[in-house]
Amino acid sequence: MKIGIPKEVTSGETRVAIIPSQVGVLTKSDHEVLVEKDAGIRAAFSDKQYEEAGARIIAATDELYQQADIILKVQPPTRNKEIDKHEVDWLQ
To answer: Which of 1, 33, 47, 85 qualifies as a cystine partner to 55, CB 3.0-4.6 A?
Structure first.
């Protein structure tokens, strides 16, 4: 299963659904972890840390949602103001 971790878009939210140290737990169970570029920045985790843990970085939000079988978020789906689209619209 491909597990997608998008950037949180809720104003003031600094958390991310998965931290790099937990990526290995999922990949050892034969899941692929896809992390949106800069998803962990506000929580002080770099893309490099996610990659080193075994995740694959996805450049664009829509690509992440298209490739993922399941999405993990901290906050419920909401409107992404940067691209003026609701996250629910991307769910498969």
So the answer is: 33
